[in-house]
Amino acid sequence: MAAAYQKLIADGQIEADAAQGAAVAALERLYLALQKYQSGGWLQKIGLKKNTAPQGLYIYGAVGRGKSMLMDLFFALAPIAKKRRVHFHAFMQETHARIHEFRQANPKAGDPMPAVAQAIADEVTLLCFDELQVKDIADASILGRLFALLLEAGIVVVATSNRHPDELYKGGLNRHRFLPFIEFLKQRHDVHELAAERDFRLARLTAAPVWFTPCGPPARKNLDERFDTLTQGVAVAPVTLALKGRSLNVPRAAGGVARMGFDALCVEARGAGDYLVLAGRFHTLVLDNVPLLEPQKKNEAVRFVTLIDALYEAKVKLIASADGLPQKLYPSGDEAFEFERTVSRLMEMQSRDYLALPHISGPIDEAANEATGEMKGEA
């Protein structure tokens, strides 16, 4: 782990940082403990010694300090065959779905949590959570029981968060019932603050423009470079975001950055629910090929307005290629007046003040998620 981090520095992919180095040391200790845990030893193999799972690790700190990058590096190298890295909100959505399915299949079985936890334990030994946060009473109500069962089953958890455990679910409904989970979390995990002074993500975002025009090979090359810079050291892979009754496919994603084309988001029949899920999952969207939104592209313009609203409200950073500057994208048509607000937001989203704002991730508006994917105003 430490050697891999030093290689990234030597190759010029990242800058050396003392706070990141301390986090790497904590991850290295867990890496070595996992090697012993995976191998067990001959006494454990013949049943004379219990193979106790090592303490998990909870890394917290301000945005842009490299938490996700370090966890992804650790995950890639972790000497565990059954492992999974997942955004915490996505994991909780899956868990609620598992609970619902169990209750549907076993209406008289009682508590579903042991069966749900065992199903997860059958799939993984190492769980890496990105952006652990708790804003939903439904999540808060099951986390203590779920984590206790997972750890009892021998699962090792590594999590990143913007908050110290004591700050989780702060101000939430019936928070006093959540406090035992916080204490349990601190007892069973090494809590490490990644206290880097520099916001590396902001530095990379402000190092170059975020709006490239016109579309074409030069703009595509610029977006390629921006995407590569923002996803340093993190493996790029497709992601499927689950919605109620449908899904949204993100062809390229890494480290909280999504890369998509305008057609997939605004020509296909998408709605507010799709955009809210996207905005809640990724802190940055790299968007290719925004066309001039001529009057005959009314539907596309309406969807684009809704997309920008969702990104803006969640403080998602937008890097885009387009066939015109924001104020030239929709010069006339039925939605021209409405589009003026979008122009204003697109201009603000290029400012350093906006780029410095923290991403508002996590649970989405459930009412919007009920949407069928059709936009209001479509012909």
Please provide a written account of the structure.
The protein is an alpha/beta fold and 379 residues long. The protein folds into 2 domains: 192 residues, P-loop containing nucleotide triphosphate hydrolases (Rossmann fold, 3-Layer(aba) Sandwich), CATH 3.40.50.300; 170 residues, Rossmann fold, CATH 3.40.50. Helices cover 46% and strands 16% of the residues. The strands form 2 sheets. The chain has a 6-stranded mixed β-sheet, with helices on both faces. A 5-stranded parallel β-sheet has the order 2-3-4-1-5. A hairpin with a 2-residue loop joins strand 8 and strand 9. Helix 13 packs parallel to helix 14. The protein starts with a helix and ends in a 10-residue tail after the last helix. The C terminus is likely disordered.
Q: How are the SSEs ordered, and which strands pair?
A:
Layout: H1 2-10, H2 18-39, H3 42-45, E1 56-60, H4 67-77, E2 83-87, H5 88-105, H6 113-123, E3 126-130, H7 137-152, E4 156-161, H8 179-188, E5 189-193, H9 200-205, E6 211-212, H10 217-230, E7 237-243, E8 246-254, E9 257-261, H11 262-267, H12 272-281, E10 284-290, H13 298-313, E11 317-322, H14 336-348, H15 352-355, H16 366-369
Parallel strand pairs: 1-4, 1-5, 2-3, 3-4, 6-11, 9-10, 10-11
Antiparallel strand pairs: 7-8, 8-9
Helix pairs in contact: 2-4, 6-7, 7-8, 12-13, 13-14
